Amino acid sequence: NAGVTQTPKFRILKIGQSMTLQCTQDMNHNYMYWYRQDPGMGLKLIYYSVGAGITDKGEVPNGYNVSRSTTEDFPLRLELAAPSQTSVYFCASTERVQDEQYFGPGTRLTVT
Amino acid sequence: KQEVTQIPAALSVPEGENLVLNCSFTDSAIYNLQWFRQDPGKGLTSLLLIQSSQREQTSGRLNASLDKSSGRSTLYIAASQPGDSATYLCAVILTGGGNKLTFGTGTQLKVEL
User: Fold this and answer.
1) CB contact (8 A) between residue B101 and residue A33
2) For residue B1, what is the DSSP state?
3) Rounded to the nearest 5°, which phi and psi values hold at B82?
4) pLDDT tens per residue across span A81-96
């Protein structure tokens, strides 16, 4: 059982480039989330989804976009990368709001 | 806006010591509270989940308590080991809060031989 997987593990982008961070879960969870973690800080929610076709903004959505065409996949798109988007990105999923969230291993992104 | 605070920010203890990590939150209307462990450069591992109706949860040497009325949770680690060294994060979900976890900034624990 793979759980939540994320690709790539590491990426360096130049300012203004775009990329998509991939997230897949094999637990048939309805809820999926994208967080970013800056050094010495807690995690902040970027976007979340309560099911296929439904997404909503979190605390820090600017500069990002998401889609949820299937239950399994929840990609995060960065358009026009900026140095402020240098961070570690985590994807998570859960079956119901009251259940524990399961996290992927993260993607470490550097924008230079 | 929910704010979650963890004290202390860092803690160093000798092996074998029992220790307590603290988590406080400002809005008591929560679904649940979750404790996570994060090793350097790694993702988050869920340790314990306490529902709002529960007072505590136990898993092995770990015991987490929840006092919703005072906005506090504690994570008790018994007989600490060097392998317990990691950052411990607590997070809460508000009822009616759009299904969002709000995280504390964590306590960095080092257990020394």
Assistant:
1) yes
2) -
3) -55, -30
4) 999 999 999 999 999 8
